[in-house]
Description:
flat; 2 helices; mainly alpha
Amino acid sequence: MEIVPNSKGWTWVLDRPCPECGVDTREIRAENVADMVRANSAGWADVISNTPDVS
């Protein structure tokens, strides 16, 4: 599978919500980022261990 580089300019997400996923970066606080990363990473162990193509 060919990996196509991302060529989008993403700085606009600092000013308005993403129309594709709805994330509004203006609502994200620096003091919450560590907890957000931990919460997101917690689910990946199940995904990796239950996906046959991942090794």
